[in-house]
Amino acid sequence: MKLRMGFVAIMLASVIGCAQTTSTTTATALMNLAVVKPDEPDMRYQVEIAKINELLANEAELSIPTEGQADLKYRRGSLYDALGLYGLARYDFHQALEHNPRLASAYNYLGIHYTAIQEYGYAYEMFDAVLELDPEHPYGVLNRALTSYYDDRIDWAIKDFNTALEQSPNDAYRVIWLYFAEAEKDPATARLNLAKRRLDFANQEWGWYLVDLILGAIDDDRFIQEYALRELSDDETPAERMCETYFYLGKLRQLDGDFATAEVYFRMALSTHVPFFLEYRYANLELHRTALAREASAQSE
Questions:
Q1: Does residue 184 form part of some domain?
Q2: Where do the TPR repeats lie (predicted)?
Q3: DSSP string, 48-59
Q4: Among 137, 171, 189, where does a domain finish?
């Protein structure tokens, strides 16, 4: 109990006090960027795509049923998606839904794709379809919340992020995104809420270090040097970790109004080439948002 209460005092002091990273620290971090080798396209995915192509080319001869064709095209679409071939992936997901209109996961993928290209109306339709077909879908509400966030429908986003957090309260990423949405309305209250959730829900997963970064307990340079690649699991690559690291550093600097640094971080996230990560997909969206915010800030001066 003493350790917990002591941590509460320290955390709240950092939130209420001047916990923001200084521009000097940020400049130091930019001079010490960790450049990792981008992830390469997985050869196994390419081989599986070739096998699916062969099956579909002979579907009449093999008498593949309609639902089987839907499953094959959905699978091929997910492989294209993982390789960053988003146009081909989108085409296959639509084809899969023509064969089987009840594939909730295909709608979920399409919702993410439409969000990334700022076709928000279509994205809402996709996620509403997901939740109609599968009300317990683990990512439907979360992804719809992200669409609302990028569409500047912040009240909707906060509502859905809260629901998503109720589904998985120990998920640091859901906590972080709820903070980003709340910060659009009331930054000070959002930080207090983030600190409370850090104390209530944190576990040993790496994502909670990102929460500490946002709260100011770790600065940019130290995070990049000491935390970014900490406890890397066997199924994680350095590029995946750095994609997340640079994306959330970009969000943090964006919130601070340091738009030039934010742009550098978002471009570094894109340099990792992790196409199936939401952070990679939405880094371009963030670059667009940052450019608009930078322009608005310049006009107001």
A1: no
A2: 70-103, 104-137
A3: HHHHHHHHHHTH
A4: 137
